Amino acid sequence: MGRLKQLLPLDESTILQKTIQNVKESSVDEIIVVLGYRAKEIIYKLAEMNVKLVTNSRYDKGMSTSIVAGLKAINLSSEAVMIVLGDQPFIKSDTFALLIDTYKSSAKGIQIPIYQGQRGRPVIISTKYREEMLLIKGDVGAKEILARHADDILYTEVNDPGITIDIDTEDDYREYTVQ
User: Fold this and answer.
1) What does pLDDT average to over the chain?
2) Structural domain harbouring 43
3) Which member of 112, 126, 156, 175 has the lowest number of beta carbons within 10 Å of its beta carbon?
4) Number of structural domains found in the chain
């Protein structure tokens, strides 16, 4: 993108702060924010948010290294992890809560939200897959875990286009924000 997108202004805060706030307003038990590129600048902005911060020194090796860093920091009694991207500030708190509640009431080990037929994020993955997730590599996130365990996926329809929107480019930022 050419700029530190996590700290771009959005409403009264930043893209990352808005994303974290939406997660905090749901029913999560713990929030771990994994930082990489220019982490010190971002840490400063998150000081008041009461989240656990983890620095991923291997961020340049792909998204999988951030997932692994986060997994290593979770409470070992956790039953599942919800992987939320820091550039998805438009997912509603109610959507996070719905996904958590639906996941808990299901026998499936993986949950993926769907909006109008399109897969989105966040993905919830049972910690029964923790050891497999600790071995992922590259910039594909947990896709190989999802592919290996397709029979254990619960697809949940949500009424929230925010699950399909992330801010990756200047055009995305201009399209989805009012300056």
Assistant:
1) 90
2) 5-176
3) 175
4) 1
The one-character DSSP state at 133 is: H
Task: Return d(Cα 142, Cα 136) in angstroms, integer.
Answer: 7
Domain CATH number, residue 127: 3.90.550.10
Q: Length of the chain in residues, anyone? A: 179
37 vs 179: which has the higher pLDDT: 37
* Alpha-helix runs per DSSP H in 33-112: 39-46, 63-73, 93-104
Return the structure tokens found at 100: 């958590």
In eight-state DSSP terms, residue 167 is -
Q: How confident is the model at residue 2 (pLDDT cuts 50, 70, 90)?
A: low
CA geometry: angle 13, 116, 103, nearest 5 deg = 75
Residues 6+ apart with CB under 8 A from 74: 30, 32, 81, 127
- From CA 51, how far away is CA 149, in angstroms rounded? 30
